[in-house]
Every structure is written in structure tokens, then in C-alpha cells.
Amino acid sequence: MRYELVIFDNDGVLVDSEPISNTVLAGYLTELGHPTSYDESLRDYMGAAIHRVHDLVEERTGQKLPEDFDEELHRRTLGAFQQERLAAVEGVDELLGSLVADGVAYCVASSGSHQKIAAGHRNTGLDQWFEEEWIFSSEDVGRGKPAPDLFLHAAERMGVAPERCVVIEDSPLGVEAARAAGMDVYGFTSMMPADRLSGVTGHFSDMRQLPELLA
């Protein structure tokens, strides 16, 4: 393999959580008087850290979200994960197994909180593949995607130069962050059309295609 480290986004790439998370977010924002459809939530917030929700709502309406917004959104999202039987993205277990067999390092760099990442991995069985020190959250850095900080932080902690890393992303914000970090990035098109993931090293729609692309 030509890369020393594979950095995975989490939601939508490893864990099939984006439909659930964005349904919850759209419903909660609408309940608070900020009408938001599921498609609008995907367009504006997919791949983003929670501060982007606060920033866009205030920018568009001049109103601040409630002080307990983050806590309540988190509670609702984790509850929905339990009710909807959260699943791993198809093919992820086989992919991670192949990376282990080939001795390739990997980690997670997600806009979600550590608690959300842990809940998703625990509910899907993906926790068997990840040590705690291989998991990085936007909570760990000052700025979330599309800033490159999270990916650069992950590379530094894993001891790999950015140019030897490859990022697996499914959102425009994540792709922008990876490119800003000086890393190659492959766009996973399970939910986002390829034309929305511009500037990537390549596109793929099935996790089983990835080992060949990375070879």
C-alpha cells in the first residue's frame, strides 16, 4: 500500500448513522422554530461539528440556539441510535480486517463527540477494531471540518506525515478539510453524489472497492 495511515471519517463512512442523525437534527431545529428538512440538514450540516449548526442558525435568523441544545441533541441522537438498530456500513468489517492483515495503520477522525463515536462503535460491534488512542474527535481541536486541524492532529498523534496519509470521507466539508491538510482523499458516494465531492483523489460507492484503490 502506498499510504502509511488511513484516516476514516466515522458517520456515514464506518457507521451508517447519517440518516438517523440528520433526521433527528432536522426535527429538533424545526421544533425550535427553525424549519429544516432532512435534505437541508444533509446539505448544510453533514460532516460538520456542532458549532456549525449554531453559527448558521444565528447567521440566518439572528437568534441563538438554547444553551442546552448540544446536550439535548446528543441525548435524542443516542436514543435514536438505540431505537433504529444502528448498523455498520456494509463491507467495513471486511475492509478493516484487510488493513489489519496487511499491517496498515488506521484511525478515526470525526466531527462527532467521543461519546457519540463510542456509542456508534459499541452498537455496531466496530469497537473491536479500534483502540481508544486511534479515535479523534473535533472535541480534541479548536476548529472542526472544513478546517484541517482535526486531520493534522490525528496524523501527528499517529506519528505519520500528512503526505503519507489518506482520508476516507463522504461529505464536502470533510473533503475540503482533508485537502487543506495536504492529504489524499477518497470520496465515498453512498449518500452524497460524486459531483458534490469534488477535488478528491477518487470516488467509490462500495467499501469492498477501497483496498484496490489504496493499493
From TrEMBL:
**CDD domains linked to this entry:** HAD_BPGM_like (cd07526)
Q: Which UniProt keywords apply?
A: Hydrolase, Magnesium, Metal-binding
Q: What family does the Swiss-Prot or TrEMBL record give for this protein?
A: Belongs to the HAD-like hydrolase superfamily. CbbY/CbbZ/Gph/YieH family.
Known EC number(s)?
Answer: 3.1.3.-
* Protein name in UniProt: HAD family hydrolase
Coiled-coil blocks: none
Co-factor requirement: Mg(2+)
Entry keyword Metal-binding: yes
GO MF term set: hydrolase activity
Biological source species: Streptomyces glycanivorans
| Taxonomic lineage from the root | Bacteria, Bacillati, Actinomycetota, Actinomycetes, Kitasatosporales
Q: Which SUPFAM superfamilies match?
A: HAD-like (SSF56784)
Pfam families named in the record: Hydrolase
Query: Which superkingdom does the taxonomy of this entry point to?
Result: Bacteria
